[in-house]
Design brief:
Oligomer: single chain
Mean pLDDT: 88
Low-confidence stretches: none
Distance between the termini: 12 Å
CATH class: Alpha Beta
Structural class: mainly alpha
Strand content: under 5%
Number of helices: 7
Number of strands: 2
Number of domains: 1
Radius of gyration: 15 Å
Length: 121
């Protein structure tokens, strides 16, 4: 997924459910979801150019602050660490940033490496 606050917020809905669909959250949630995304440590590891590293807007920083206060996130140490890092760097990146290496880099190189290394949260 994208490395941004909105992506994390969407992922929490997959884990916890949504208010709008509360009547069926038991059938709609995925408690064992894995957080697999592009992250700051990947920026340098994969040599991502600086133009794909995007500064977060004030609204996005507020969303990170909100997420950091959520009980669910507080209980999930690694989630909290990643969001704290996101808050500190104030950077985000879209998974499409990997297209700078070619259209098949994501599916043929990046994801297979991540999955083989079990590099998720």
């Amino acid at each position: 997924m994208d490395y941004d606050p909105s992506g994390v917020e969407i992922m929490t809905i997959y884990v916890l459910g949504s208010t709008a669909m509360a009547y069926d959250n038991g059938n709609l949630t995925t408690s064992d979801i894995k957080w697999l995304d592009i992250r700051p440590s990947d920026f340098d590891k994969h040599g991502l150019p600086s133009n794909v590293r995007v500064q977060m807007k004030p609204k996005e920083i507020k969303l990170v602050d909100k997420l950091l206060k959520e009980e669910f996130v507080i209980c999930k140490t690694k989630w909290h660490e990643k969001l704290t890092k996101m808050r500190e760097t104030k950077q985000k990146a879209e998974i499409q940033a990997l297209n700078c290496f070619g259209m098949d880099y994501l599916t043929n190189v990046y994801l297979p490496r991540k999955l083989q290394a079990r590099d998720w949260v």
